[in-house]
Amino acid sequence: AHLVRDPRGVAHSWARVVARPDVVHGAGEMARLGAARVAARWDSTNLLFELVRATDRGTPSMRLRYEDLVLDPERSLAQLVALAGRPGAPLGSLSGHRADPGVHHTVSGNPLRFHEGPLDIRPDDRWRDQLGPGPRRTVTLLTAPLWPFYGYGPTRG
Description:
This protein is mainly alpha-helical.
């Protein structure tokens, strides 16, 4: 499964200051990346997934846009379950746009992993208003050639 997100949203997420609750001493923050580096990673990661998909025809695969996942989580996760060979299997704690992932014991990842209780699945489109003009231009310039392939455009995301 290949999850892809509008690169402007990805750039905004990587630029934000996000506290790391797993840091015991001092004020730890998640790493931040500049727009050019995010764009280069977005391009290379997505091109690599497409290369693998094109050359490995025997392995079932699917592309899922983040924007579609948050719009209809049940439909999107049902597609993933079907890809895994379990069509119609229960989707666990997912109900509509709410999920209760339970307790996880992970070493690294998004600080959201420390949240306890139900989570609302909703789009994070703050990038539309908060991504500055410089980073927006940089990401656009470096990623726009791939946008049509993933259904993105100047105003779509």
